[in-house]
Design a protein that fits this description.
The chain contains twelve helices and twelve strands. It has two domains: about 240 residues, Type I PLP-dependent aspartate aminotransferase-like (Major domain) (Aspartate Aminotransferase, domain 2, 3-Layer(aba) Sandwich); about 120 residues, Aspartate Aminotransferase, domain 1 (Alpha-Beta Complex). Strands 1-9-8-5-4-2-3 form a seven-stranded mixed β-sheet, sandwiched between helices. A three-stranded antiparallel β-sheet has the order 10-11-12. The protein has a two-stranded antiparallel sheet with strand order 6-7. Helix 2 packs parallel to helix 9, helix 3 crosses helix 7 and helix 10 crosses helix 12. By secondary structure, it is an alpha/beta fold. It is globular and about 75 Å long.
């Protein structure tokens, strides 16, 4: 297939190249000043107290769960609620830490939690609701908080696809206790590989810092929630307090991120303009598209067809690159046999799984003519 309408594209230019050359000249490639400055700039942009950069959005999700477990906020066997449609690394850390995963159905119009099903799923065993802001779309956090009420339930956000989305004046990824972001090539901004965790919580911040780098104390402030840290740098350089990881980012990624974050307002503006044109185009066709909750950042454009095979053939013909809507109904994947969960029927997720396709959005103005031609053929308008 000759691709005319690609799934993703680069927003790099000479500024990112210059940033990489700056790092190369410095001779410092492991995590250092560029990463630290990017974290500060990222936190400031999103209005978060802290931001911790890691090597991927997947690692960001892993560290959030690890921080909750090692801080004692979660323990093996605790119940955590997740949507049935998301990416594998929303779920994998939950299995790896022995948590009980409760899947909740997905609304076919918003692609986020089916709120009625979420309400029915919560019980006295629920410890965490892990919200996934899918394809740029915020969850209805006011309603979710209303459903939680006075219960002691933590809220996390997988915001890897939704950088720049806004709900009631706040950026998604900063609404829960912690939120994850991804800088993979196809996402809103790209640092080659990379991710970020935001939080306003001092304790979680300290756990994230230690877990990111082997579980040691070296990067912790003197007064912290994990250890009595001495002023002896030699002693603290190899002192371990947690069974951590090495998921540190590279200086190259930090430097690129500093240039990318400057472009984010323009990128979001263009993506939202593209979304207006997309919605204007598809409204006359019998296809289900994503309904925006407040202010989406429009990662991509989802469509649910009655006959997906016919749609895929038309997309191939007109050079439109496409993918399933994330992982579809995740409970249908063979990996589910490793999870501690009791499965149910998820009709919304199944509709998405069987009929869903998404195509890319970009940081440039999109020519939707290939999509119009494909939709005309799918619905036999010519």
């Amino acid at each position: 297939m000759s691709i005319i309408y690609p799934l993703s594209s680069s927003s790099w230019d000479e500024k990112e190249i210059a940033a990489m050359h700056r790092v190369i000249r410095s001779g410092r490639f492991s995590m250092g000043e560029e990463v630290s400055l990017f974290e500060k700039e990222f936190a400031e942009f999103f209005g978060s107290k802290y931001a911790v950069m890691v090597n991927s959005g997947s690692s960001a999700n892993l560290l959030m769960i690890a921080a909750l477990v090692y801080s004692g906020k979660l323990k093996r066997g605790d119940e955590i609620i997740v949507p049935a449609v998301s990416w594998a690394t929303t779920y994998s850390p939950l299995q790896q830490f022995g948590l009980k995963v409760k899947f909740v159905d997905t609304d076919i119009e918003t692609l986020n939690f089916n709120l009625e099903d979420l309400k029915n799923a919560i019980n006295c065993k629920t410890k965490v609701i892990f919200c996934v802001n899918l394809l740029g779309n915020p969850n209805d956090f006011n309603e979710i908080k209303h459903i939680i009420g006075e219960r002691d339930i933590l809220l996390l956000e997988d915001n890897c696809e939704s950088m720049g989305a806004v709900y009631k004046g706040r950026f998604t990824g900063t609404i829960g206790l912690m939120g994850s972001f991804s800088f993979f090539y196809s996402h809103h901004i790209s640092t080659m590989e990379g991710g970020m965790i935001t939080t306003n919580d001092d304790e979680m911040y300290h756990y994230l810092l230690s877990l990111r780098s082997h579980g040691w104390t070296r990067h912790l402030p003197k007064y912290n929630h994990l250890s009595n840290k001495s002023d002896d740098e030699f002693f603290e350089s190899y002192r371990f307090v947690l069974p951590g990881y090495n998921v540190r980012p590279l200086e190259l990624s930090g430097a690129i991120g500093r240039e990318q974050i400057k472009k984010l307002p323009k990128i979001l503006s263009v993506r939202r303009d593209n979304a207006k044109n997309f919605k204007k185009l598809v409204h006359k066709y019998n296809v289900i598209t994503q309904n925006e909750i407040d202010k989406s950042s429009w990662f991509g454009f989802s469509m649910i067809f009655e006959d997906r095979e016919k749609a895929i053939e038309a997309f191939k013909k007109y050079g439109i690159e496409y993918r399933p809507i994330v992982a579809g109904n995740f409970t249908r994947n063979p990996v589910i046999k490793y999870f501690k969960t009791k499965l149910d029927i998820y009709p919304g997720a199944s509709i998405i799984d069987m009929g869903g396709v998404y195509i890319g959005n970009h940081a440039y103005k999109i020519d939707f003519e290939p999509l119009k031609n494909a939709l005309d053929e799918i619905y036999s308008l010519f």
